[in-house]
Amino acid sequence: ALRASFATKAQKESQNFHRHFLPQAAYKVAVLGAAGGIGQPLALLIKMSPLVSDLHLYDIANVKGVAADLSHCNTPSQVKDFTGASELPNCLRDVDVVVIPAGVPRKPGMTRDDLFNINAGIVRDLVSAVADYCPNAFIHIISNPVNSTVPIAAEILKQKGVYDSKKLFGVTTLDVVRANTFVAQKKNLKLIDVDVPVVGGHAGITILPLLSKTRPSVSFSDEEIEKLTVRIQNAGTEVVEAKAGAGSATLSMAYAAARFVESSLRALDGDGDVYECSFVQSDLTDLPFFASRVKLGRNGVEALIPSDLQGLTEYEQKALEALKEELKASIEKGVAFAQKQA
Ligand code: NAI
What we know:
Layout: H1 2-21, E1 27-32, H2 39-47, E2 52-59, H3 63-70, E3 78-83, H4 88-92, E4 97-100, H5 116-133, E5 138-141, H6 146-159, E6 168-170, H7 173-187, E7 198-200, E8 207-209, H8 222-243, H9 251-268, E9 274-281, E10 289-297, E11 300-304, H10 314-341
Parallel strand pairs: 1-2, 1-4, 2-3, 4-5, 5-6
Antiparallel strand pairs: 7-8, 9-10, 10-11
The chain binds 1,4-dihydronicotinamide adenine dinucleotide (NAI).
Keywords: NAD, Oxidoreductase, Tricarboxylic acid cycle
Catalytic activity: (S)-malate + NAD(+) = oxaloacetate + NADH + H(+)
Subunit structure: Homodimer.
C-alpha cells in the first residue's frame, strides 16, 4: 500500500511538472468573415480553446467591436482585429489555421449555387492572400457553394505555386453533426456515441449520409433511410426557411466549424487519432474532389478512409452514382471560374 501511494505521489508530481513547465500548445488561428453570423459565434468557440494562443479576426467591417468584446474573456488566446484588405497580410502572417466563412448566405428559395457569383470572387481574393502570407496553413472553406469554392481555392493556390492538397478542406462537419443528431433522435440513442459518415459534397443530393455505416451499428427501415437522408440533405434549407430571410445556419455551423478547427489543432499537436469528414482532393471516386472521412495529421490529410465507401447498400450506391453528375458540374464550374481569372 505504501509503495502504491508513493507511485501515486510520484505520478502526481510528474503531472504537475508537466502542467507547469511544458509549454502550452500554442496555435494561431485566423477567421476571415469574423463579424458575420457564423464568424462571431465561431470566434467565441475558438476563443474557448486551450490550444489557441492567437485569434485573428478579419472582416471588411464591424470586426473591431467583436474583437474588443471577445478579448475580455479570460481564456488564454490573444484576440486581434483586422479590417479591410490592407490589414489582411498582418492578419495572416504565421497563422496555422485559416477559417473562411466570408460571403453571403442563402435566403428562402435560393440554392447554394445561387451564391456563386458573389462568393466565388470573395474566396478567390482571400485564398490569394493566404497563398501570399501563410501558404503552409490549413485552410477551412465554409463559404458556399463549397462544392465550387474549394476547387476555386485549389486553382488559386496552384496558380501561386503553393497548392498542398492535404491542407485544403471544405467544411462539411455540419452535415455530420446534423446526421448524428437526427439519427440519435430517431433511434433514441445517446447522442455522444453516434457517428454517421457523410460523403459526396455539400449541397442537396450531393450530401450523402451513409446510414448503413452508422456507429454504433443500427438498423433502419427503408422508409426511415429515405426520410433521414432527405432531412439531412435539406436541413440547411429547414433553417433558411425558419429564419425567413434573416440568413442561414450560423450557430450550428459555428459549432461544427469549431469542432473541425479543434480537430485540426489536435492533429497539428501530434494526436494520432483524429478523423473527420471533409470535402477534399480525393481519388476515392472518379471525381477530383469528394467528401469522405479523412485521417488528420500534422501535415493535414494523412489518409483518406476508403472503407466507408465499401459494401454500400443498394440505396447508397444509387445515391452515390446519382450525385456525381451535379458534383462534377459544380467542381468544373469552380475550376473554370478560377482559370478564367488567371
Ligand atoms: P453573413 O452575411 O452573416 O456573414 C458574412 C461575413 O462575411 C460578413 O461579416 C461580411 O462582412 C463578410 N465578408 C464579405 N465579404 C468579405 C470579404 N471580401 N472579406 C472578408 N469578409 C467578407 O453570412 P453567414 O451566415 O456568416 O454565412 C457565411 C457563409 O457561410 C455563406 O456563404 C454561407 O452560405 C456559408 N455557410 C456554409 C455552411 C457549411 O456547412 N459549409 C453552413 C452555413 C453557411
